[in-house]
Design goal:
This protein is an alpha/beta fold. The protein is built from 13 helices and 22 strands. The protein folds into two domains: 267 residues, 3-Layer(aba) Sandwich (Aldehyde Dehydrogenase, Chain A, domain 1); 194 residues, 3-Layer(aba) Sandwich (Aldehyde Dehydrogenase, Chain A, domain 2), CATH 3.40.309. A hairpin with a 6-residue loop joins strand 5 and strand 6. The structure holds nicotinamide-adenine-dinucleotide.
Length: 477
């Protein structure tokens, strides 16, 4: 299969060429240039904003049933096209083909969930003090949204934001990830083919800082949604706050994993190794800081290292690959710097620890032990195929260590005791806690962080909260 043609999508039209600046798209496994991505001009951005403003006037009045129908069709088409979208995603993002195709298939459920939930956006009637007065609370779409989605799960992150905006009756200008754009262009095509009216969804590309500044500052835009790093999220949230615009922020984490003495260690190892190295660890909820209770430490570490060493790293298009390359060449140096810092501080690299020589952004799956608590790996999000392991003695002690960072996205624990499970689920400062299994990011469950990891949730019944205004109406007969 050849890599698909890339384009902007503005006011119902797929656009490329026209002398616009183009960016090379590089396959991270082979370093070949596989495509050209057109950047939006300022006029393109203004046209996208104007189209979204115009479309909002009619889209906000469509019935939930009509919006639901479009979203259902998107889910159906996504499943039909999953193989092609997935293959192109592996070519530009690098993850193994099964993960790419799986992302498209699993995330078609987000479109379905929003199709169902948008029919249940209810207001309420408040009993009045006067018999001739009716008091009502209405929930209305906020208006034109600007969304910015990252390169690690190109399809997942974009469909969550678009489905929430469109389901709520908002319109949206989306800036996708320039390094890994194919799945987002394919998503625009899905909405187009599902019958979404022109202007409701617009897709633009460019220099992130320039595009986000232009969109956030536009008086047309009423809401911002961003998924990405903490520093960029803070900057965009500050900009939005200065203009009194709503924002949803899904930012980075540094997920602790707590393995208690009484845990099923074989289950923990079997569950956590593939999960840790999924998408080469480039996952905001990736388990990164492992705290293992003393009695289980040797067994857990031996099992974890053995299973890690068996992972096959390679081009994501090859059938036996379990971990692909990092998405960008710059991430190889970034991950290596975490390992170097750990080594300088006297840590033990149990396996991996270096880029894999040859073509492509490959880094060997890496497990590091005996780290001081202030090592970069234990305090900053590594966003790569590397993790640190430390020992702990008591639940109180491990909770204090797990909660000591400014992040609060996901946290994991394995224990055979209800008492420990309760202490951990209530004591961990995180937006999501999962115990004895992995169960995050389902369409029907809320996904989001606290502390520096963000504001607001995507998915679950909370999903429309960020896209709706509350209006109170009181009427006398
Ligand atoms: P980065 O901070 O340069 O960029 C992160 C994301 O923000 C990218 O998608 C980028 O295109 C976008 N971005 C950057 N500046 C922007 C701006 N001014 N306006 C709008 N968007 C902007 O980091 P990176 O090297 O691309 O990625 C590594 C870091 O990003 C990781 O450490 C991780 O914390 C974070 N990240 C998080 C997620 C997530 O799901 N929460 C996803 C991707 C990256």
């Amino acid at each position: 299969m050849t890599y698909p043609q890339l384009s902007l999508y503005i006011d119902g039209e797929f656009i490329q060429g026209g002398g616009r600046r183009e960016q090379d798209i590089v396959n991270p496994a082979t370093h070949e240039v596989i495509g050209k991505l057109p950047h939006a001009t300022r006029e393109d951005l203004d046209r996208a904003l104007a189209a979204a403003a115009r479309a909002f006037q009619s889209w906000k009045k469509t019935s939930p049933t009509e919006r639901s129908k479009v979203l259902r069709k998107v889910a159906e088409l996504a499943r039909e096209r999953a193989q092609d979208i997935g293959r192109a995603m592996t070519m530009d993002q690098g993850k193994p083909l099964a993960e790419s195709v799986g992302e498209v298939v699993a995330c078609s459920e987000h479109a379905e969930w929003h199709a169902e939930e948008c029919r249940r956006i209810y207001g309420r009637v408040i009993p009045a003090r006067n018999d001739s007065v009716r008091q009502m609370v209405l929930r209305e779409p906020v208006g034109v949204c600007a969304a910015f989605t990252p390169w690690n799960f190109p399809f997942n992150q974009a469909i969550r934001k678009v489905a929430a905006a469109v389901g709520a009756g908002c319109t949206i200008v989306l800036k996708g990830p320039e390094d890994t754009p194919s799945a987002v262009v394919a998503l625009a095509q899905l909405f187009h083919d599902a019958g979404l009216p022109a202007g409701v969804l617009n897709l633009v590309w460019g220099v992130p800082a320039e595009v986000s500044e232009h969109l956030i500052e536009s008086p047309i835009v009423r809401k911002i949604s961003f998924t990405g790093s903490v520093p960029v999220g803070k900057m965009l949230a500050a900009k939005a706050a200065g203009l009194m615009k709503r924002s949803t922020m899904e930012l980075g984490g540094h997920a602790p994993v707590i393995i208690c003495d009484d845990a099923d260690i074989a289950l923990a190892v079997k569950t956590l190794v593939p999960y840790k190295f999924r998408n080469a660890g480039q996952v905001c909820v990736s388990p990164t800081r492992f705290y293992v209770q003393e009695g289980a430490y040797e067994r857990f570490v031996a099992g974890f290292v053995e299973k890690t060493q068996a992972l096959k790293v390679g081009d994501g298009l090859l059938p036996d690959t379990k971990m692909g390359p990092l998405a960008q060449a710059r991430r190889v140096g970034a991950v290596a710097a975490f390992v170097e810092d750990a080594r300088e501080r006297g840590a033990t690299v149990l396996t991996g620890g270096a880029p894999i020589p040859g073509v492509g952004n490959f880094f060997s799956p890496t497990v590091i032990a005996d780290l001081p608590e202030d090592a970069r790996l234990m305090t900053e999000e590594p966003f790569g195929p590397v993790l640190g392991i430390a020992r702990f003695k008591t639940i109180d002690e491990v909770l204090a260590r797990a909660n000591s960072l400014p992040f609060g996205l996901a946290a994991y624990a394995f224990t055979g005791s209800n008492r420990n499970a309760h202490a951990l689920s209530t004591g961990l400062e995180a937006g999501m806690v999962t115990i004895n299994h992995l169960g995050l990011a389902l369409a029907e469950t809320p996904f989001g962080g606290i502390k520096d990891s963000g504001i607001g949730s995507e998915g679950g019944t909370e999903t429309f909260d960020g896209y709706l205004n509350t209006k109170f109406v009181t009427q006398m007969n």
